[in-house]
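Structure tokens please, single chain.
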Amino acid sequence: MAFQAVHGLVQQAAQRFADHVAVECPQGRLTYAELAARSDELAVAIRASGAGAGCVVPILAEDRRELVVSVLAVLKAGGVFVPVDLTAPPLRLRTMLTVTAPEWVIVGASAAGRAEEILESALPLARRVPLDLTAEPTGAAPQRIHQPDPDDAAYIFFTSGSTGQPKAIVGRMQGIDHFVRWETELLGIGPGARVGQLASPGFDAILRDLFVPLITGGTVCVPPAGLTLDGPALARWIDEERINLVHTVPTVWRGMLPSLAAGGPELAELRCVALAGEPVAPSDAATWFDRYGERIALLNLYGPSETTMTKMFHFITPADTERSTVPIGKAMPGARVVLLDGRNQPCPPGTVGEIHIRTPYMSLGYFHQPDATRASFVPNPLGDDPEDFVYRTGDFARALPDGSLEYVGRRDQQIKLGGVRVELGEIEHLLRAYHAVRDAAVTAVSDDEGNPAYLCAFMESVQPVEAADLRAHLAPRVPDAHLPRVFVPMERLPRTISGKVDRRALPVPLPPRQQAEQDYVAPRTATEETLAGIWAKLLPVDKPGVTHDFFHIGGHSLLVMRLIAAVTTEFGVDVHLQKFLAAPTIEGLAAEIEAALLAAGSDLDDLLADLDGLDEAEAERLLAQNGGN
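Here you go.
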């Protein structure tokens, strides 16, 4: 399809649907006619201030009407818009503004005080272009609305880099046009469609929230602030406001699921939930289909910000709930996706490779970071044209028999423990499948030499959950190296501006040695004293306490077998594996030993015979069945 500038498409919609509501938010409404007029006025003011084609213009506004007017005005003036989320941490805000170093800034009346506070510290000399929608219209209109080339820069959004410093991604005009026209056609979005606007202004997903409805005569519907953190309230809002389409991250969607049981909101007008940014759990999809069947479509979208919003899609089906993961699907028209191995060769079906995306609709790279751009946007390894670039996503997937891709995990979420490759995303997915866990994040804890030593799982739970229960849930499903040694309950996992888990903000768990020192309870009996000596020889702690969980302070399945053998040698009693796994502490084990010593007929020979009859594989199986690791 021939390129059309997105602000031109909105202008056409305004001419056709002048009286339709374009934006609806807690602060009020804006019709298409008002949107067109106000953005014309602001475009004139931007040019009068000296800004023009190619100029970077941040937008500081809290009222979404002001944001939409400003975005259109910057495009009409030929500039590059930078939406700023004023709720972001101050340091991130200053970094974003100083990195782009703009000479002009649009300041909405809704955020004037907060904006001035930020600008005084970051950009004191930047020219303020004010926007006040309560002021009388001037009727000013630009003599000429800028007509961009397809490859002209349109916007800058920030994503977190591996160093923790935000990286500025520069998007091109044709990237916006390609996506929004594709999605409106795919979902049949037309005049009157009500589209929820849940994304942060600082996250590029807001582009689909805004432009999918605005080029078709639909309405951008903005919920009250903070509603995305309250799943039941969000579900009620979607129902009461008759929302037809929602784009969101799976975490936000998952928060609604408990309230959608029988008797919950019917979501009668909702037609599609488009999910992106995180893997979709099959168990969550199953909950959704149990309630709504296939009446409300679930659309799984995949695409890094560097390639402009989305480049792969998959309509989730009930059959997907039986898979280990929900597919991310196939490439949308205008994009090609290939999986390459470590030698940059195509991967055979079923094998894991890194996702590379080739499309003319990707972004222009990182703002003023040529080295980072060259590292991610590389010449196509499958061709010989140095100008033919692909984007290395850092994501890994495998091809399914039908050609769809199954997401496996991130390059930076793949670690090795004891020589075994561990996919942190796989463990997180399995934890989320446990009925009491709302969300989970798994990290590797390093030893003194900086090598990954063991895993720690952080969890949001809908109810209190014991570590032993989680261990029992995971043990039959993953190898021993994949089992977290520590489980940390949290009221809420920290989030990035896009709603994903912010791994850098997770607390650092104490190493086994420090954890043992922190909550140490000394042995109180001779049996406990002897067991503490045995544990100290097996585990990476000098003084194990009687209440320490064996697995929390470095224990694993092979050490369990050595522990039981040591107990047999030292005490001459039979300790049942299942009973130890139910209470894997010195205190619990001492109670079992003392009970066995009191019982008549305890026979060492019988115990040794039982142990000799178990080979290692059988012992592992028994452990897995009973929740050990």
